[in-house]
Amino acid sequence: MDTEKEKIRAEKLTFYYGSNAAIKNISLMVEKNSVMALIGPSGCGKSTFLRCINRMNDIIPNTHVDGDIFIDGEPIFNDRYDVTTLRRRVGMVFQKSNPFPKSIYENIAYGLRINGVRDKYEIDSTVESSLKSTALWGEVKDRLHDSALGLSGGQQQRLCIARTIAVKPEVILMDEPASALDPISTQKIEELIQDLKAKFTIIIVTHNMQQAARVSDYTAFFYLGDLIEVNSTEKIFTNPDLEMTENYITGKFG
C-alpha cells in the first residue's frame, strides 16, 4: 500500500467488552478511494473493528479502547474529536436494510435537513443524484412520495446507500450489505461498490469469499480478534503469505 494515499490507519487498536478483548492490537492502513474487505469466521472481530471506525461502539456500556484510529492523520479517539462530525464523514450501511418509515424522497432529504440544508432545489437535486448514483432513479422516479417500505429488499438496501452518500461522507462502512439479498440484487450492490470507490473509501465486512474477491482491492483476514494478514486481494486469494490464511480461503476451517 502507498502511505501517501492513506485515508484510515489503525494503530495497535484493542477494543474491550468489559475485560474481554474483542479485537487485539490491530494495525492496518486503508488507502483513499479503495475498497477493503474484512473476512473471517463469525465472531472474529470484523464488525467490531468496522464499528470502531465511526465510534458506533461508544454507545455500548462497559467498553473501552486502547490504541487509536487515524482519519486523514487525525486521532478519532481523542477526547476533543467531535463524534457527530466523525459520523458525518464516515457513513454506515447495515446488514439489514433500515429505511425510515417515510417516503423514498424523505429518506434522503431527512439527512440533508439535519445537516442544515434548507434549499429545496439543492435537496431535490441531491435526492436525484444520490438515487442515480445507486442506479435507483429509473426505478423510483415516478413514486418518490410513496413509502420506502414498499420497495423490494434490494431496492431498500440501495436506498440506504443513497441516503448515506447524500450527505457526502468520505468513508462508507458496509456490514454485510448483501447477505440478506437475492443474487441479482447482490450483483447490483457489488457493481455499485465498484462505482462508488471513485468518490469514497469503502470498507466492507463480508462472509462471502467470492464477494470479497470480486469487489475489493485489499483484504484483511481476522481470526479470534487478531488480524492475521492484510494484503492485496489478488495476493490473499492466490498466494497468501500465511498458511492459516490459505486454509481459511480454501475452506479448511471457518
Concise structural overview:
This protein has 254 residues and is α/β, with parallel strands linked by helices. The chain contains ten helices and ten strands. The chain has one domain (3-249): Rossmann fold.
Describe the protein's topology:
Layout (H helix, E strand, L loop, with lengths): L5 E12 L2 E12 L3 E5 L6 H8 L9 E9 L2 E2 L7 H7 E4 L10 H11 L5 H14 L3 H4 L12 H14 L4 E5 L7 H14 L4 E5 L3 H7 L2 E6 L2 E7 H6 L4 H7 L5
Walk me through this protein's architecture.
This protein is α/β, with parallel strands linked by helices and 254 residues long. It has one domain (3-249): 3-Layer(aba) Sandwich (Rossmann fold). Helices cover 36% and strands 26% of the residues. The chain has ten helices and ten strands. The strands form two sheets. A six-stranded mixed sheet has the order 6-7-8-3-9-10, sandwiched between helices. Strands 2-1-4-5 form a four-stranded antiparallel sheet, with helices on one face. Strand 7, helix 7 (183-196) and strand 8 (201-205) form a beta-alpha-beta unit. The chain starts with 5 loop residues before the first strand and ends in a 5-residue tail after the last helix.
